[in-house]
Amino acid sequence: MKHKQKICAVIGYPIGHSMSPAIHNAAYSKLGLNFILKAIEFQDPLKAITEMIENNYTGYSVTLPLKTSIIPHLDKIHSIAKEIGAVNTIVNENGKLKGYNTDVNGAIKSLKEVINLTKKKAVIIGAGGAARAIAFGLKRERMELLIQNRTLEKAKALALDVKCNFSEINPELRKGFDIIINTTPIGMYPKIDRSILTEIPKGCIVFDIVYNPIETKLLKLAKKRGCKTINGIGMFLYQAAEQFKIFTGKEAPLNTMRKVLMESFI
Ligand code: ATR
Questions:
Q1: For 212-259, how does the pLDDT look when each residue is reduced to its tens digit (9 = 90+)?
Q2: Using a 6 Å cutoff on CB, does residue 154 contact ligand 1?
Q3: 59 neighbors 89 (Cβ within 8 angstroms)
């Protein structure tokens, strides 16, 4: 007997350029699963939740601006997502909605491919949702952190939550750190000639969570300084792969997802 198709969606606003449908749908096809992931525009979290229940959607991939505002509408929330205060994944278990955050493991896995995090010191540039997920993830690895942000108040609020230092965006204060992580959208398509930093210490590792373009201006500058770089592709893929497993119960075909993502940039 053919099972009824399970419907998932990536939700947020704007949503038109999301890569999530392409990579999730390719992965469903690869494993022969009767699933589909659509893109649906929502700015109102309550509307998104009401539609999930009414249409019996299986899962949501949640992006801006809903990652925090949707939390009060959920029935259950996974401990990591609760600690961070942001979800990027919701699964519908017989009408009960549970929220997860897969950005954390996505970022940490991507970093660990390149560097052993033990006893390392990292500067996180930015204090938004992505910075929050990464800061909590790195704190779990017992790393020393410095949050630098344009708006000092926001840096302070995040630093108080994760128990670390904070400052304005200041190159002097980055000396002696092993890793610099950009979590701001600076350098993202279409404004690709911008970089949040120009002064990059020699010998550090630079991670930019922006993945479009794959090599941002910041990463180009870092390479010129002889630094190792990590682009945002790994984080995006790993958060999607964990999300896929939450939706389907199956391990994601990572190579298929990576291939589709890379082809979308050609
Ligand atoms: P996300 O959830 O994707 O992290 P966000 O919550 O909007 O997105 O956060 C964006 C981050 O990028 C913020 O830290 C923001 O700094 P402010 O707190 O000062 O707003 C930072 N950011 C955005 N545009 C910036 C710019 N032009 N210069 C410096 N920082 C910028």
A1: 999 999 999 999 999 999 999 999 999 999 999 999 999 999 999 999
A2: yes
A3: yes
Report which protein residue has its CA nearest ligand 1's atom 18.
151
Weakly modelled stretches of the chain, pLDDT under 70: 1-2
For residue 223, what pLDDT is reported? 97
> At a CB cut-off of 8 Å and minimum separation 6, what does 245 contact?
251, 252
Which residue in 4, 6, 47, 67 is the catalytic one?
Answer: 67
Q: What is the pTM of this model?
A: 0.94
Report the 10 Å Cβ neighbour count for 154. Answer: 16
Positive or negative torsion for Cα 185, 97, 241, 9:
negative
* 122 phi/psi in degrees, rounded to 5: -125, 145
Of residues 80, 98, 76, the one with CA closest to residue 136: 80
Ligand 1 atom, smallest distance to 127 CA: 14
CB 230 within 8 A of CB 106: no
Which three-class secondary structure state does DSSP give residue 204?
A: coil
Give residues with Cβ within 8 angstroms of 17, minimum separation 6: none
